């Protein structure tokens, strides 16, 4: 059936939070998206390139005046030619440049291929699995976003079309050095992807010392969501949890966040790239140059504005106070030193 999301184009302008008035498409009404109520972002449309609907979502692609081609899912801008580099490069290299020689990597979502393109810059990587539920997104990006789709052409890539949660459940324990979650906003079915069971499933699939890079919303709009995700991830990932951010003009508020988590094992220092992109052979050669990420940006991404630090620290303090006290352990006579690897969190 015809996609509804193209009705968000009115008088030559696309607006990310519009809905169609019955019988009056020229007088579209604004509504509050639950992820960013009271806001709307508009782009001038030169030409509608594609509109359609999959079993999962409505898909729109249009050529804009200033950002090149734009991909819209269910009326929400997902990426543009101009600024996709900021998200794709950061969500990938914040993780892969924080561990030495990553070999096996999984992408959850990411059907446009941009994260694949970035992972392929790491010569140490041997296998790249991607699990994307919507074949239409893959096909549309092949036709209209060739600079992203190039990621699929790497021979190390193995595409799995289906449910990522089920894929992870069936993955061998400890298979991946890194998992990158490039999913839609956590509303509707995607809500499952920000809940504790999902993160536990990811942790199971990671090697000791393996890392997760996960979308973590905007610090200007979603501190409550960020607080909840940090709390959950600190229970699951004992190797460390950090919040980072980057500027993406077409993302709501112009800022996007990332959660970087490490499974207990070999220590991971996210704050300093131990595997700097500048030293990876071929990562910056012709056709593969970075447009946004570098080692300086990596370090700076973890420096948070004062109000964010204050809110996250206050939340951590309050949640610690709410935890019930553990009963005192009974004294035991230790005959063998076997538990030296157990550390307090």
From TrEMBL:
Asked if Transferase is a keyword of the record, the answer is yes
For whether the record's keyword set contains Transferase, the answer is yes
- Determine the domain of life of the protein's source: Eukaryota
**One GO location term (cellular component):** cytosol
Q: GO biological process: what's one of them?
A: spermidine biosynthetic process
Under SUPFAM superfamilies, the record lists: S-adenosyl-L-methionine-dependent methyltransferases
Annotated PABS domain residues:
11-263
Which catalytic residues are annotated? 182 (proton acceptor)
Molecular functions per Gene Ontology: spermidine synthase activity
Pfam families membership = Spermine_synt_N, Spermine_synth
This protein's UniProt keywords? Polyamine biosynthesis, Transferase
- Which residue stretches, if any, does this entry annotate as coiled coil? none
Signal peptide residues on this chain, from the entry's feature table: none
- Report the NCBIfam families cross-referenced here: MFS_SpdSyn (NF037959), PRK00811.1 (NF002010), speE (TIGR00417)
UniProt lists the family membership as follows: Belongs to the spermidine/spermine synthase family.
Q: What name has this protein been given in UniProt?
A: PABS domain-containing protein
User: What is the scientific name of the source organism?
Assistant: Aegilops tauschii subsp. strangulata
- Please name the taxonomic classification of the source: Eukaryota, Viridiplantae, Streptophyta, Embryophyta, Tracheophyta
